[in-house]
Amino acid sequence: MSSIADEELRRRKLEEALEIKSLRRIISAYLNYPEAAEEDIVRNERCFRRLPHAHKALLSHLPLKFQKYRW
């Protein structure tokens, strides 16, 4: 009987630890959102600049979109 109770306690502690870890990730995402968004925009702009001219012509709306995301 004790081993079943021990196993249940271990399972609950593991679930609690996973919930805490998940909550920390969510909080971190909210706190770091502006920086992460800026990094995404910079990465997308860099990728756009590397495209061949013909592809840039097809995606000519993207630079304006990148600019709007910053405001």
Descriptive terms for the model:
single chain, 71 residues, mainly alpha, 4 helices
If you had to describe this structure to a student in words, what would you say it looks like?
With 71 residues, this protein is an all-alpha fold. The chain has two domains: 1-31; 34-71. Helix content is 89%, strand content 0%. The protein has helices spanning 2-31, 33-50, 53-58, 62-70. The protein is elongated and about 70 Å long. The relative contact order is 0.07. The model has no long low-confidence stretch (mean pLDDT 94).
Mean pLDDT across the residues is 94
Extract low-pLDDT stretches.
Answer: none
* Radius of gyration over C-alpha positions, nearest whole angstrom: 23 Å
Shape, per Cα inertia axes: elongated
- What number of domains? 2
Largest sheet: number of strands, sense, barrel closure: none
**Termini distance?**
62 Å
Beta-strand segment tally: 0
Helices and strands: which structural class? mainly alpha
Query: What share of the residues does DSSP label as strand, in percent?
Result: under 5%
SSE pattern, N- to C-terminal: HHHH
Per DSSP, the total helix count is 4
Report the helical percentage: over 70%
